[in-house]
């Protein structure tokens, strides 16, 4: 399939006619599949006067599904017996969790995509890992455990420490294990977990106890910005405090942006730009008109993803706010689209425009 072909490319290259053509072909190939196999998606398309089989629209004109719809609809395009992985996102204050159903094709693509992206940012393979979560094998229904199992596999035969037990993380245990590795000359490759967990359970107690650790591996974090926003901790404050407790190169701190419905991950390079692989596109839309915005203008983030095969997640609109960066090649040397996230959706606030859009769409589908 075309989506698998585009995954053979390196993620961060300048799109040429060939990859651009492959991208749009792969996108249509999957959308046609969903149109034929998912009644919910077909109704959604009909409600938007869109028939993917006609292949007439450019990617900016394709209809988009709000990710909130995964909370209320079972979005599935293959028979249930082909599903090999069902994940729910941790439910938020707004209620029900998102459910994402992956068949083998989609799950393989998820692993290939995220590993290829990771390889471009983090040198952690076959090195010791510290995960600020529980062993992902314990609960295979939770979305964040899919990320943790993917990252965990990268440690290969090296030690993996899972520091969360029954939702508790003991920072003293972390220090003991960390220092034991240093004393015995073992190289730690990666510490990873949710941003808020890292902040609350490691950085804060280490700060309070004046502990500073020398470290030359990587720290990868993501997924807790909503909580950080609620605590009013900015990204720069977070980084400042992180570098106070970890004496490490700032370039080895990796901010991951993703969501459970997405098969890719968008990682900040050392210049603070999120890089988009060739198998994704990011469109920023005006919060009121939903028209695509030019570079530098803030709006709602839409992600095109050629990879979902078992669910119609090829064009998703998030509830997060961001902007596209100017097109010059990033100073880090990676090519392709660049964007920044300004604000993550916040479940405790009034409904965001993504939520309102979801309500509208649901009414259309239910008609
Ligand atoms: Zn860059």
Explain the overall architecture.
By secondary structure, this protein is an alpha/beta fold. The chain has two domains: 2-79 and 277-366, Luciferase, domain 3 (Roll), CATH 2.30.38.10; 122-257, no CATH class. 34% of the residues lie in helices and 21% in strands. It has eleven helices and 18 strands. Strands 1, 14, 15, 16, 17 and 18 form a six-stranded mixed beta sheet that branches. It has a six-stranded mixed beta sheet with strand order 5-4-8-10-12-13. A hairpin with a 2-residue loop joins strand 6 (164-165) and strand 7. Helix 2 packs across helix 3 and helix 8 (195-208) crosses helix 10. Zinc ion binds at residues 269, 271, 273, 275, 330, 332, 334. Zinc ion is lined by residues 269, 271, 273, 275, 330, 332, 334.
Percent of residues in helices = 25-40%
Please tell me the total number of domains: 2
Please name the CATH topology of the largest domain. Answer: Luciferase, domain 3
- β-strand percent reads 15-25%
Q: Give the strand tally.
A: 18
How far is the first residue's CA from the last residue's CA?
A: 34 Å
Give the CATH level 1 class of the largest domain.
Mainly Beta
| Ligand catalogue | zinc ion
Largest beta-sheet characterization = 6 strands, mixed
CATH architecture of the largest domain: Roll
CATH superfamily of the largest domain: Luciferase, Domain 3
Inertia-based shape: globular
The average pLDDT is: 90
Please count the helical segments.
11
Poorly predicted ranges: 347-351
Output the radius of gyration: 20 Å
Give helix and strand order, one letter per element, not per position. Answer: HHHEHEEHEHEEEHEHEEHHEEEEEEEEH
Could you say which structural class the secondary elements and strand pairing correspond to?
Answer: alpha/beta
């Amino acid at each position: 399939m075309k989506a698998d072909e585009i995954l053979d490319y390196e993620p961060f290259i300048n799109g040429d006619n060939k990859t651009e053509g492959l991208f749009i072909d792969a996108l249509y190939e999957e959308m046609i599949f969903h149109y034929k196999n998912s009644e919910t998606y077909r109704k959604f398309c009909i409600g938007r006067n869109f028939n993917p089989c006609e292949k007439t629209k450019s990617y900016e004109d394709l209809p988009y599904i709000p990710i909130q719809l995964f909370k209320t609809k079972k979005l599935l395009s293959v028979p249930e017996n082909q599903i090999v992985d069902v994940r729910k996102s941790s439910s938020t204050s707004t209620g029900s969790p998102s459910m994402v159903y992956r068949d083998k094709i989609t799950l393989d693509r998820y692993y290939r995509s995220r590993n290829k992206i990771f390889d471009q940012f983090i040198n952690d393979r076959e090195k010791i890992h510290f995960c600020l979560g529980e062993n992902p094998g314990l609960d295979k229904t939770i979305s964040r455990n899919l990320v943790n199992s993917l990252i965990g596999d990268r440690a290969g035969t090296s030690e993996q420490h899972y520091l969360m037990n029954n939702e508790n993380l003991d920072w003293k245990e972390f220090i003991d294990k960390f220092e034991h590795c240093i004393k015995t000359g073992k190289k730690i490759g990666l510490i990873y977990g949710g941003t808020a967990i890292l902040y609350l359970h490691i950085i804060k107690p280490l700060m309070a106890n004046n502990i500073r650790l020398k470290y030359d591996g990587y720290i990868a974090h993501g997924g807790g910005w909503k909580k950080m926003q609620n605590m009013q901790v900015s990204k720069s404050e977070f980084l400042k405090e992180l570098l106070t407790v970890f004496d490490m190169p700032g370039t080895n701190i990796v901010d991951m942006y993703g969501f459970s419905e997405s098969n890719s991950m968008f990682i900040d390079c050392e210049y603070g730009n999120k890089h988009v692989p060739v198998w994704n596109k990011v469109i920023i839309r005006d919060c009121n008109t939903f028209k695509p915005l030019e570079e530098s203008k803030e709006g709602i983030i839409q992600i095109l993803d050629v990879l979902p095969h078992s669910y119609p997640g090829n064009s998703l609109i998030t509830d997060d706010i961001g902007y596209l960066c100017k097109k010059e090649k990033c100073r880090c040397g990676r090519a392709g689209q660049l964007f920044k996230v300004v604000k993550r959706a916040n479940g405790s606030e009034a409904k965001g425009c993504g939520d309102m859009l979801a309500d509208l769409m649901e009414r259309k589908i239910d008609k």
